[in-house]
Amino acid sequence: MIIQKEYKFYAAHRNETLKDKCSNLHGHRYGVRCFFEVERDGEISTLFGEFDSRMEPWIKEYYDHGMLINVNDPLYESLQEHCRRTGEQLKMKLFNGPTSVENLAWMLFTEVTDMGFRLAQLEIRETDTSVISYTREDWIRDNRLFASLRSPGAATP
Hints:
Blueprint: E1 2-13, E2 26-37, H1 48-62, E3 66-70, H2 74-86, E4 92-95, H3 101-114, E5 119-127, E6 130-135, H4 136-149
Parallel strand pairs: 1-3, 3-4
Antiparallel strand pairs: 1-2, 2-5, 5-6
Protein name: 6-carboxy-5,6,7,8-tetrahydropterin synthase
Pathway: Purine metabolism; 7-cyano-7-deazaguanine biosynthesis
Cofactor: Zn(2+)
């Protein structure tokens, strides 16, 4: 059985690997729809609040009103220097590759799975008209791809 839950967060990012408007620092109100697989073990399989009580604080702590940034982006080094110089603590969610919505989907799928949830799919709405659907099969395929690309010094999401 699938239980769908939706979550939202605001975050800044840029994709420095592109040579278009997305290489500029900008933000989105991301919508994340999780498709949780659950099994019935009685009259009630799962209370919706059980998802929210773990997911909402986690999203707020690690993603909401933060910056998604590639550790290989020259801006990251500048932001680290700013924090050292000023003592300011910026919330940064670190990526080992571009902060594309595809890489965000992989990261979220991995982290939600690591929390003990079983996902069939998740959808990420980056804009009003742009949504990515990311399935367990996509996640498995990406994990294989990233494992094959890993070598000393190789950066993967």
